[in-house]
């Protein structure tokens, strides 16, 4: 039965237009219903944008209210937390090619050891971010557009660049400070 759901998703549902096309909410609902039958874990109220590729879904887990961005390519064991926002064209790869044997062409060495990817809760993954094998992104973090993330980062990180580096830490808003700058 799962193969039928995969066929329906990849042949039909992944191509349903998204916002701002009329009826886009119906497309989100249809994709969510079919993806819930495919992924290993699929939270409530997720959004899967069009042309998202995740293989057969047996190694992808996504939390409540998270989004898989348009044209995303997610390969291997990946865990995405709750309330994750993902821009278009994001790539997450938890595997790579083996290349250690210098006497053998790389294309014949097969895959290297899989290294799972973990994305914490409330993370914003910007447009065209690439996340490589073994990376963990702490909760409440932001990954700037175009970043190539080759190592892990803790909670509340703002990261960007190629290779990605810590730009600064997110800090809570001081609620006691008066943020009104207008005269009374």
Question: What would a concise description of this structure say?
Answer:
This protein has a single domain (2-168), classed as Hexapeptide repeat proteins (UDP N-Acetylglucosamine Acyltransferase, domain 1, 3 Solenoid), CATH 2.160.10. Helix content is 12%, strand content 24%. The protein has two helices and 16 strands.
- Number of helical stretches of at least 4 residues: 2
Tell how many strands the DSSP assignment holds: 16
**How would you sum up the major sheet?**
5 strands, parallel
CATH class: Mainly Beta
Helix and strand arrangement:
Layout: H1 2-11, H2 24-36, E1 41-42, E2 47-48, E3 60-62, E4 67-68, E5 73-75, E6 78-80, E7 85-86, E8 91-93, E9 117-119, E10 124-125, E11 130-131, E12 136-137, E13 142-143, E14 148-149, E15 157-161, E16 164-169
Parallel strand pairs: 1-3, 2-4, 3-6, 5-8, 6-9, 7-10, 8-11, 9-12, 10-13, 11-14, 13-15
Antiparallel strand pairs: 15-16
Task: Tell me about this structure.
By secondary structure, this protein is an alpha/beta fold. It has one domain: Hexapeptide repeat proteins (UDP N-Acetylglucosamine Acyltransferase, domain 1, 3 Solenoid), CATH 2.160.10. The protein has 2 helices and 16 strands. A 5-stranded parallel β-sheet has the order 1-3-6-9-12, with no helix packed on it. The protein has a 5-stranded mixed β-sheet with strand order 7-10-13-15-16, with no helix packed on it. The chain has a 4-stranded parallel β-sheet with strand order 5-8-11-14, with no helix packed on it. Strand 15 and strand 16 form a beta hairpin. The protein is globular. The mean pLDDT is 91.
